[in-house]
């Protein structure tokens, strides 16, 4: 095989013939009801209970047959493909087509026989056509085999392969299908094991044609969905960038409104501090005047009390009587004045306080919330060829939703 063909063969093996559990080529491939296939040994390692196993690919919980892993279906198709892929790999060697005949060990191989499972020469090819033991053998020209695509090779070999014989009845080909047991059976099986009324039997070619039609219809429908989903996935980076753009836009909106509010708060702060300064200055001036008056009164009271005390305790009677009227009038005048202490008490009660208009806990500059996308526009559905346009349109509403939340 050419290097390009070898690469295609490797890609085919990696895609279809590699166990996702052990990462190696399938060994006795066994298929679960979810359609995922694993090596028989790997499947045994995956089983957690005697009743079920969780598929590591789709995470579906699969109920096991009554007898456990021993009754899990073998993936006979992959067994068939593996058989011929192993043969095709021998063609990757430059000397492979120069080898000896599988039957006579002579040189000059020209064809591949799937029943003989090897390359044979032109002489043995003629015997295949004439001799009864080789009747029905699927012989393919080596030149055609080497230049064909891997899938075409498998298709060619599978169409030419002889009928498979029953494992229970030697020599009997599998020509019937039991609907109850979901297996291909031979003529003897229809008489022995599958002869009761609940074992409905159909001709293998008839049920195969019907199942191929069902699979074909489902494949067409699923392929369409796969293509739509692939188209949707193409928009992944664009969707991510749109979300990041919306994030930047909303972050900028938050910064702007926060700055606006901070500016307003700073302006109110300046006005409040100016008012505080004005009120405080008035209070201090009033306080100064009250105590200046009190200090003046103190001087007069001190002088009055001193002279009166001197007169009261030291004056002669004649002198006391001569001038006591003036002192009596002066002290009554002093006592009639409003107590300066009462002004001081009044000032102490006229303090300055700050009453917040809103508490910090109540301060709310807005909210950030996701936009609910229009499911009809964004979901991957059969009625829509693409959902990216609807998703992109929904993302545009993200910033609008944020601004609306600020107004609430």
TrEMBL record:
UniProt keyword terms in alphabetical order: Coiled coil, Metal-binding, Zinc, Zinc-finger
Query: Domain RING-type spans what residues?
Result: 19-59
Keyword Zinc-finger tagged: yes
Q: InterPro entries recorded for this chain?
A: TRIM45/56/19-like, Znf-RING_euk, Znf_B-box, Znf_RING, Znf_RING/FYVE/PHD, Znf_RING_CS
Output this protein's name.
Answer: E3 ubiquitin-protein ligase TRIM56
Domain B box-type, residue spans? 101-142, 161-204
Q: Which GO terms describe its molecular function?
A: ubiquitin protein ligase activity; zinc ion binding
Q: Which residues form a coiled coil?
A: 247-282
